[in-house]
């Protein structure tokens, strides 16, 4: 008779069921949630045939994306170690974890989980020839005793973990399938439903895998469990594991089997060689001399965020932090395509010498994401179809500026640029600004509008459309001249000097108009809220870096939003920002959240400091961004401020989206800007008109 207290009636039923039952009971199981968003590793092979991406978090393999970067199709895979009598330990629960690049010039990761009894070492690649993740596993007993090692695999096909079925080592839904295979082969397998008939529920009870369910035919949150040959003793220390993905179970099993037959060594050699070739053709800036490995990792991470089906589609992050990981059937917005984030990555890739990637990005934005009216959605699915429909005019301007930077002056590009510029003219200047939760007159957004229109005017002139060029320049000049009247307060409560506010809802920065701050924040006077993003005015060349308004705004932003940490100074997005964890570290999604510090602002400040001639300060900003990297050389969206939860350190990564492509892009672009002595992103055609 089973030991343990069974709290659910369904578990009582399970215990009464014979161990040889073929069909797993307890459907559909617990609701599936995604793993935390602060990833330690992220990788994929360079060839397009390998349409699979892995992530690592908390000592385990976390979400795997297949067949594209918009489709998480596997939740997690980890191991259970047991002595068969007195304990069973999931490695995510009890072990110490260290994740590092196994090869500093490829996205090959090694993950070590250890306790006082045992150590697991796992090395991850994807097979360059197919959609398979390969894991080389080494298990060591640190006590000299043999142990039993089980693998727990949780498929989550087609962006949901609640609609899968399983048979043996394969799982499927209506459109996708996965398969698990190992060499040596698994000794015993069982499938079940999370929290009801899964293998961990079985092992936790009496430390033996008693259940041997062959199938879970009712759609739900299925888990696959296998007893491996690993014991920790000589001859039973190593295992190769393959996860294959395809449209049907048989095909997925074939993919996994082919990957195993190729072997880990051959796949890993080809995997590493692909990344080595990529890095060899790109120069490294002199300014990255002290952060060579992080710089190389940043290039690879940015390249890995490009989808292999929809070329040029650059996602924001392979992650689903906080509330985005806990909505059934929806994994959140980070692996969508945002024109703004894509622009940040593309400009960094262009600076680094990967002109082809930047060209693919602008071709994607114009060819797939641009809408019939010339505008762009707030974000899109990988195929370009709108996801969130709001209009943010900086995201309309960014592809124009990128086209100018790439010298895309051909007639076909001009037709896209013309439609985008017309959208800016017709819809602006007020817009939803770049932090997505306020609409009005934003100095950062208007700076992007002006830059986009000036770049569009030059492209129009090169295509013989002088009338369009004159129109765009006239509107650009008007908005450039009115920025202060819309966004610079002279009577605000934060300073006796004029300063730019984050946004005015009415275009009157002295009116004291109130609004409710986003993410459950208070109702405030619009003059109380500032944002470091106003530096877009200088970085894009719309205002001189030394203008009085910029100089008097800087101390206000630094006092209100800047925080000095052991890793350097970083800034909040704006006063009363609520997009972050709760004070105790709990996830965003409820009232009382606190937005933390964003490393990207160190990069933007560094680019501004280059405009003022303060190269030394700009170099310090590069070091600050670099200091926020985790052990896997991934850069986060946010770091802890001066009020971290107990046990955490200011300046270290939070539980936000990691890696964030924008943060990696900011590090790469600032390094090249330091070499150039100026912001390499700044369009000279704009700066010549307004700030030089």
Helices and strands, with pairings:
Blueprint: H1 9-16, E1 41-43, E2 53-57, E3 60-65, E4 72-82, E5 88-90, H2 91-94, E6 96-101, E7 109-114, E8 118-126, E9 132-141, E10 148-155, E11 164-167, E12 170-172, E13 177-183, E14 188-193, H3 199-206, E15 215-220, E16 222-227, E17 238-246, H4 249-262, H5 264-280, H6 292-304, H7 339-352, H8 355-369, H9 393-405, H10 411-427, E18 431-432, E19 439-440, H11 443-462, H12 466-487, E20 488-489, E21 499-500, E22 514-516, E23 523-525, H13 536-539, H14 548-561, E24 562-565, E25 568-571, H15 600-611, H16 615-627, H17 661-676, H18 684-690
Task: Please explain how this structure is put together.
- There is one protein chain.
- The chain has 692 residues and is α+β, with helices and mostly antiparallel strands.
- It folds into 2 domains: 9-275, Beta-galactosidase, Chain A, domain 5; 282-690, Glycosyltransferase.
- 33% of the residues lie in helices and 19% in strands.
- It has a 9-stranded antiparallel β-sheet. Strands 1, 2, 3, 4, 5, 10, 14 and 16 form an 8-stranded antiparallel β-sheet that branches.
- α6 packs across α17.
- The longest helix has 22 residues, at 466-487.
- The radius of gyration is 27 Å and the shape is elongated.
């Amino acid at each position: 008779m089973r030991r343990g207290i069974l709290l659910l009636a369904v578990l009582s039923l399970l215990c009464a069921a014979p161990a040889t039952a073929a069909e797993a009971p307890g459907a559909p199981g617990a609701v599936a949630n995604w793993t935390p968003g602060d990833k330690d590793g992220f990788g994929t092979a360079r060839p397009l045939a390998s349409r699979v991406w892995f992530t690592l978090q908390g000592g385990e393999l976390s979400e795997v994306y297949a067949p594209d970067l918009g489709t998480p199709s596997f939740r997690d895979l980890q191991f259970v170690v047991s002595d068969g009598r007195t304990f069973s330990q999931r490695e995510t629960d009890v072990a110490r974890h260290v994740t590092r690049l196994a090869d500093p010039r490829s996205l090959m990761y090694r993950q070590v989980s250890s306790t006082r009894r045992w150590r697991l070492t796992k090395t991850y690649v994807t097979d360059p020839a197919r959609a398979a993740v390969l894991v080389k596993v080494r298990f060591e007993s640190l006590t000299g005793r043999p142990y039993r090692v089980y693998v727990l695999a949780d498929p989550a096909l087609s962006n949901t973990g609640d609609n899968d079925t399983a048979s043996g080592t394969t799982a499927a839904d209506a459109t996708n399938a996965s398969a698990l295979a190992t060499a040596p082969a698994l000794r015993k397998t069982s499938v079940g439903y999370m929290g009801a008939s899964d293998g961990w529920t079985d092992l936790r009870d009496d430390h033996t895998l008693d259940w041997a369910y062959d199938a879970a035919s009712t759609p739900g949150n299925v888990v696959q469990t296998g007893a491996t040959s690993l014991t920790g003793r000589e001859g039973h220390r190593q295992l190769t594991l393959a996860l294959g993905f395809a449209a049907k179970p048989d095909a997925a099993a074939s993919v996994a089997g082919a990957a195993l037959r190729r072997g880990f060594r051959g796949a890993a050699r080809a995997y590493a060689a692909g990344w080595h070739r990529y890095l060899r053709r790109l120069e490294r800036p002199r300014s990255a001399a002290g952060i060579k490995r992080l710089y190389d990792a940043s290039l690879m991470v940015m390249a890995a965020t490009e989808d292999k089906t929809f070329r040029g589609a650059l996602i924001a992050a392979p992650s689903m932090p906080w509330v985005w990981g806990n909505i059934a059937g929806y994994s959140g917005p980070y692996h969508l395509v945002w024109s703004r984030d894509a622009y940040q990555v593309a400009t960094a890739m262009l600076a680094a010498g990967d002109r082809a990637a930047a060209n693919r990005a602008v071709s994607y934005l114009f060819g797939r994401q641009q809408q019939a009216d010339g505008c762009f959605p707030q974000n899109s699915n990988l195929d370009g179809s709108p996801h969130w429909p709001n209009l943010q005019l900086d995201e309309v301007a960014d592809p124009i500026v990128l086209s100018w930077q790439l010298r895309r002056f051909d007639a076909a590009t001009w037709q896209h640029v013309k439609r985008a510029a017309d959208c800016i003219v017709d819809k602006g200047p007020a817009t939803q600004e770049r932090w997505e939760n306020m609409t009005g007159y934003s100095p950062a957004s208007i700076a992007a509008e002006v830059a986009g229109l000036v770049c569009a005017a030059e492209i129009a002139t090169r295509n013989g459309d002088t009338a369009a060029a004159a129109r765009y320049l006239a509107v650009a000049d008007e908005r450039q001249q009115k920025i202060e009247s819309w966004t610079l307060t002279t009577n605000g409560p934060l300073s006796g000097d004029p300063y730019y506010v984050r946004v005015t809802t009415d275009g009157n920065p002295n009116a004291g108009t109130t609004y409710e701050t986003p993410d459950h924040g208070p109702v405030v006077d619009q003059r109380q809220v500032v944002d470091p993003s106003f530096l877009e005015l200088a970085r894009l060349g719309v205002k001189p870096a030394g203008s009085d308004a910029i100089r008097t705004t800087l101390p206000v932003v630094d006092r209100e939003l800047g925080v000095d940490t052991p890793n350097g100074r970083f800034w909040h997005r704006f006063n009363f920002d609520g997009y972050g964890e709760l004070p105790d570290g709990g996830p965003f999604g409820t009232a009382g959240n606190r937005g933390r510090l964003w490393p990207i602002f160190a990069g933007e400040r560094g680019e501004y400091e280059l405009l003022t001639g303060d190269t030394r300060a700009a170099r310090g900003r590069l070091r600050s961004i670099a200091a926020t990297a985790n052990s896997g050389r991934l850069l986060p969206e946010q770091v802890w401020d001066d009020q971290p939860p107990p046990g955490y350190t200011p300046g270290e990564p939070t539980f936000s989206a990691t890696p964030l492509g924008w943060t990696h892009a900011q590090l790469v672009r600032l390094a090249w800007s330091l070499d150039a002595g100026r912001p390499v992103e700044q369009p000279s055609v704009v700066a010549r008109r307004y700030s030089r």
